Amino acid sequence: MILNEPEGATPLSVELMAGLIPGLTTREELNEFEQWNIAAAMRWAGRSHRRLSKNLVTVDGLLLLHRKMFEEVWEWAGKFRLTDTNIGVTWSQVPGQLRKLCDDVKYWQENETYSLDGIAVRFHHKLVQMHPFPNGNGRHARLVADLMVELEGKEPFSWGRNAIGVSGQTRETYLTALREADCHKPQKLLEFARG
Q1: Dist CA 179 CA 160 (whole Å)
Q2: How far is residue 170's CA from residue 163's CA, in Å, rounded to a whole number?
Q3: What is the pTM of this model?
Q4: Which tens digits make up the pLDDT trace of 112-148?
Q5: Residue extents of the structural domains in the chain
Q6: 121-128 long-range contacts, Cβ below 8 Å, gap at least 24?
Q7: For residue 12, how many other CB atoms are within 10 A of its CB?
Q8: Chain segment 60-89, per-residue pLDDT in tens
Q9: What fold is seen in the domain 14-194?
């Protein structure tokens, strides 16, 4: 069984572990395999800008991106969670809440409610807060935000320039910024994303 979850991570239950495709036994092995799959998804995204520019801010587009990020690791990649977790909306509310969030983001884009970075970081925050998938929500939300700005010709975010997925000061700063964004104060998250 894989243990030693970093602070703020969704615990991997026995049910989730049953969906693990490769025969991995340690957190380090799982992290490495997931990172390999995410790198493949990023290459796919680089070749799919036209498709993503039309579909990124849609439920189907978000499901597809999650599937591409984790399809070689988890059987449930690209599928909504079916249980409640330590974070997020009730699992049965995920599809409707995600549709509403996509509508909100499209409104922000069309009306230039916030800067491009402001929209992308707010979208990231709301995705993390909602927690639509069994696992990989933070990494998915960061890639969504990166793709949003890249599709407009800007550099992707740095997200603190260090590994957020492991315990340490960078992760703690990220989690603190997310908690402030929960209170409608996204400035630290914006600064962290570009820092």
Answers
A1: 16
A2: 7
A3: 0.90
A4: 999 999 999 999 999 999 999 999 999 999 999 999 9
A5: 14-194
A6: 121/145, 121/157, 121/181, 121/186, 121/189, 121/190, 121/193, 122/181, 122/186, 123/57, 123/148, 124/189, 124/193, 125/178, 125/181, 125/182, 125/186, 125/189, 126/101, 127/62, 127/101, 128/87, 128/178
A7: 18
A8: 999 999 999 999 999 999 999 999 988 999
A9: Fic-like fold (1.10.3290)
